[in-house]
Amino acid sequence: MNTVTKKDVAKRTAQEFNDNSEDMVKIHTAEKFVDAVFSALRKILSEADPEVRIEIRDFGVFEVKKTKPKPKARNPRTGEIIYVPARRKTHFKAGKILKDALKKDTD
Length: 107
Hints:
This protein is an alpha+beta fold. It contains three helices and five strands, in the order H-H-E-E-E-E-E-H. The radius of gyration is 20 Å and the shape is elongated. It folds into two domains: 1-47; 49-107, HU Protein, Chain A, CATH 4.10.520.10.
């Protein structure tokens, strides 16, 4: 499995921008934009009260959803019954174009 880092995303972003524009963007500048986008998404998701949906057309949807408390969860090691409080969790659902691109690679 390959791991793609934020720096790799910034390099690809700069490359995509430079291929599609007359202006040249340096990787250092692209890193700032990628950092800013991820920071903004993180803030929007963490400030959600209690739920939020970020829809990015042609890519997918990020959501924060509430979970229900589980009063009778079981610790698998000890078998002890424990209480798990309600919390918020993140969920990502791929958009149609991304789904189609992923399907095409495996066919």
